[in-house]
Structures are given as structure tokens and as C-alpha cells.
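Sequence in, structure out. Go.
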Amino acid sequence: MMRPVRTLSWTVGLVIVLIIVAIASAALGPVTIDAVVVAKAVLNAITVPTGLTMEEPVTVPGFGWTVHGPRLEYAAVFGFDVPETHQTIVADIRLPRIVLASVVGFALAAAGTVMQGFFRNPLADPSIIGVSSGAAAGAVAAIAFPALVPFGGLHLSAFVGALVTAFLVYAIATDGGRTPVATLLLAGVAIQAFLGAMISYMLVHSGDDLRQAIIWMMGHLHNSTWSDVGFALPVTLVGVLVLFAYTRELNVLLLGEEDAHHLGVDVERTKLLLLALASVVTAAGVAVAGVIGFVGLVVPHIMRLIVGPDHRILLPTSALAGASFLVATDTIARAGPAEVPVGIVTAALGAPFFLFLLVRREVHSV
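Output:
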């Protein structure tokens, strides 16, 4: 089968899986809702802009800034008969959380795929160069010491912390215009250790905000809003689309930097671009959901075993599988009598499965 057809087939199949998982997730909870009612409520939530109004202030998604200006008004496209309570539960409570889980899972799995190819190591994940630690430091600072973060809210602080960390690691590892992968990895380990100390210090002095900071660091999707989606979705989509345009170069880098250079790839420029985009995509996901482990580690590895190492098909399939995986695990996280952070569930499921692959000798160099 030709690659474009195979890629399209896998993509369509995984999109269908994501839709099924999302509908099942929206149906489950303290109030169980029939899947058909869920589908109707979702369609009812689809709106189109009808005009502008200046009557109410506008909250900039993810930043916490409130400004006065024109605001779009929307009208529903469909008008299915759905009980008002069910419509509110699906459209205002569960749907934003499911969409955000999809976006974050999509981002982390895509970034993990790129990192594993970049480092040619199946143990690589989006946090390997300290991006997650940087986001955690920024978020904990915003939670525990808001006076130190005057430029925006929690999301922006975490996002900036992640990007500053990635830039710092790259700057430390670069010498004479070259960035050895081994040096980059070691710099990431050192920066993570330093940031871990900073985070621990802030947690010790966080007072009443300690619980909120710890829950954020565990990874959570509780109280997700459409503003969170608006913060993460554009960055994730643009970043992954650009990464997909460089999947050929990523394939060539698997042969080694010297061979890639002889095949016409600008190795250092490509490495910088891949690292920057993967860091931005990771930062967008971590900023809105906290540190969620194993999505970017296990999902790309499983998909590599299924579809092969060609990143032209591996990247989109891993991203879609990551979206379904995080929606499913978040459903498990909120299914019990007491909700737990989704990061606990992903680690509890991902670590044993990865150990199983390791015992079976399925974990090997990419």
C-alpha cells in the first residue's frame, strides 16, 4: 500500500477511535447520559458567530487579563431536544475537559515522537531537556508567589518557564555552532536537578497554596474550561503541522548526523527547529494540564511497533493515539468516588506496560 493511502487510513481510523472514546467519556460520570443524548448535546454546542457587542469585558484565554472591547456573539447551529441539565453537563462541564485532554495528549505524544527520533532513544520523552520542570517551576511560582509573576496568570507563567528552560539547555549545550545530542541530554539533566531544588524550596514556603501546587505538578484536568482549550489548541496545531513538514528530515537524522549532512540536510538548523517546536508544543500542553508523564514516552513507542519508524506516518498516528489515551485515562481518573489527578493514572498504566515491553525486549533503539 502506498504511504499516503496508509497514512490516511490510519489517521481516519484513529480519528474514529478518538470520537468513540470522547463520546463514551462524555457519557460517563456521576450522572450517566445516553450516548445518543451526548451526541445531540455536542452538536447543540456547535455555534457560529452572529455579530459583535461591546457590552461585556473580554477575558483573554489563559492569561487572566480582562479588557473591554468588541465581543463576538454566537448562535447554535442545531436545536436537538436535549434536557437542559444534560446539555449543561455535556457542553459546559465534560466537553471542555475532553477537548483539552485530546489537545494535551495530542501535544505530548507528538512531542514525544519527535524527541525519541531526535535522540534516537526510546526512553526520550518531552521532559528530557527540562521543559516540564521549567513549566512546573513557573507554575509553582505563580501559585505560591504571585507577586513574583506580574506578567500574567498561571498558564502564561508555566509556558514561559518551559520555553526559557529549553532555550537555556540549548544555549549551554551549543559550542561553536554545534549542539551534540549527548551534551544536550546532560545539560537537560543538570537543569532539571536545579529546577527540582527550586521547586522544592518554593513548595516548602508555599503555605496554604501547597495542595494546589502539588495537584498541578501531578497533572490534572479538573475544572477545565474553553479558555484553557483556547490557550493550548492554536499553539499545538501550528506546532505539530510544522513538525509534520519536517518528518523527512527527522527520518534522515535517524541514520546519523554525518549521513544526514551528506544527504543534504542542514543538521544543526534542523535540530534547532525540531527541538524548539517540540518544546513549544510540550509547553502548551503542560501549561494547561500540569506535568503528565508517560503519554509522550509510551504512546509513540507503541505506535512505532505497530506502524513502523517512518515519521511521516508515525507522527500523526502517535499524536491521535495520545489524544485518545489521555481522554481514556482522564475518564478513569474521574470515575471513582474521589477524583485523582490524571498524571497518577497515566503513570500507573504506563509504567507497568513499559516494563512489560522491556521484559519482552520490545524496547530498542529507534
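Check: The longest strand covers residues 47-53. The chain has one domain: 92-359.
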